[in-house]
Amino acid sequence: MIISQLSIAPVGKGISLSKYVKIVLNALLKNNIKFQTNDMATIIETEDLDTLFNVVKEAHNAVLKSGSKRVITELKIDERRDKNVILGKKVESVK
Question: Against a cut of 0.70, is the pTM above it?
Fold first, then answer.
């Protein structure tokens, strides 16, 4: 299982980015991806890299299609093969 952190932001579109966050979240929902959004990024759970990269590409392109001329996408990936990890388990382990 892969847990990743995704942030996609258009450049030059003002201060509030909530419209673009919604575009990204809609792409995740459309693809049945498990995720949690926080104040700085969205945490995603996928079974494999192909699924992750495909949905990130779709979300990135959706922000471009919304009229943005420039988009910065940041992706951090944590892939564990020694045990099955799921969204929220890391936070649970430190409580």
Answer: yes
